[in-house]
Amino acid sequence: MSLPTGFVSPDAAAQPRALHLLDRDALPAWCERQGAATARWLQAQGWDASPGSVLLLPGADGALAGAALGIGDRLDPFTYAHAPMALPAGDWQLADTLDADAHAALLLGWGLGSYRFDRYKQAPREPARLVVAEPDAERFDILAACRRVRDLVNTPTEHMGPEELEAATREIAQAHGAQFESIKGDALLERNFPAIHAVGRASHRAPRLLQLQWGDAAAPHLALVGKGVCFDTGGLDVKPADGMRNMKKDMGGAAHALALAGLVMARKLPVRLTLLIPAVENALGPDAYRPGEVIATRKGISVEIDNTDAEGRVVLGDALAYAGEQDPDLLIDFATLTGAARIALGPDLPALYSNDDALADAWLEAGLQQHDPLWRMPLWRPYLRYLTSRIADMANAGSRMAGSITAALYLERFVPAGRTWAHVDVFAWNDNDRPGRPAGGEAQGLRAAWAMLKQRYG
């Protein structure tokens, strides 16, 4: 198999240098084994194997002979993520043996730390490469899924509108022999997806519902839904400039669902998979949907538009209703849905909602094990009062109170009763640079989702 960026096979490596992985507890014994010269060098540098640190080791001739990497929790991928950019470019080979779980974490962390979005700007340098004798196919598939989310979210809207998101979905479908369909423009009305059409009709780029289907018809049915708002102006309830600045990322839910679908297919999880992405641009224009309008939905629920900037839940409602009609064993949606979730949990913790305790517990546990955490939030149904409309079955927004919860409750109205469902309100973005987490698009809760699905169906 071809190796991802940041890795090299032994036969292609060029004079790899030795790399030692050390935590503070292991440092004294390692230093004693290396001899007096290394001990003096370490003392001169004042290096204590702090997590995130690097110590370069000179050879007898003064050339670079190797390095020591300061790490913390060996099962946390991000404890290794500083290595590709902290080490000098070139090839590096582990001087130590890691157990299988730690080695898997190393591969993932190294791969995430090697990532740079370079479509428009060349990366300042190449990452250091890790010599990999036995590629871990599953780990590299997971890495590819995380990088796919980053690439999709980082791409500006002129190159990642509804049409381009369709092309990306079609490409993945073709790669895995999946069926693909795009329901576009006025065909949405003919096929009874009026809410998706209402939100996207003002854009010069036609709204559409993307559908991918894969797997054995006799297998348990997994349905994934992702919010694909390729740019969100807020509509006629227009966002201020700072709120609109990064709205290319409002298709982050679609990026997560698409990447997870690709991972399910690449790993051949024994499920029947349906992926649904309502892909729209929430634009300003003479045909924009307006505050106070009452729109129809696929489920037959009439919705009064209280705020055109609460558009994600509107398009997801039609997609969730359609997914529910197919009687899935499990229905999951991902969406960059509310700023309220970020106020409550910050940028790193996706908000998890579910109508099934066992599912939520399994996902949260997987998040802890994979160092990919989520935080469960309540479906507090008394707050449905904040979505009351005097002229329609419900409003799409209302009070500023409990904004993430009311958004989840809105979505739940479109999920069939008794259907196991989870909703992830995800930021899909790093707001600053950290090792392995460059500023920009980010996959959050995705690795945990895969671990949970693998346990459930694998």
Automatic annotation (TrEMBL):
<keyword id="KW-0645">Protease</keyword>
<protein>
    <submittedName>
        <fullName>M17 family metallopeptidase</fullName>
    </submittedName>
</protein>
<dbReference type="InterPro" id="IPR048816">
    <property type="entry name" value="Peptidase_M17_N_1"/>
</dbReference>
<dbReference type="Pfam" id="PF21337">
    <property type="entry name" value="Peptidase_M17_N_1"/>
</dbReference>
<comment type="similarity">
    <text>Belongs to the peptidase M17 family.</text>
</comment>
<keyword id="KW-0464">Manganese</keyword>
<keyword id="KW-0031">Aminopeptidase</keyword>
<dbReference type="InterPro" id="IPR000819">
    <property type="entry name" value="Peptidase_M17_C"/>
</dbReference>
<feature type="domain" description="Cytosol aminopeptidase">
    <location>
        <begin position="307"/>
        <end position="314"/>
    </location>
</feature>
<dbReference type="Pfam" id="PF00883">
    <property type="entry name" value="Peptidase_M17"/>
</dbReference>
<keyword id="KW-0378">Hydrolase</keyword>
<dbReference type="InterPro" id="IPR043472">
    <property type="entry name" value="Macro_dom-like"/>
</dbReference>
<dbReference type="InterPro" id="IPR011356">
    <property type="entry name" value="Leucine_aapep/pepB"/>
</dbReference>
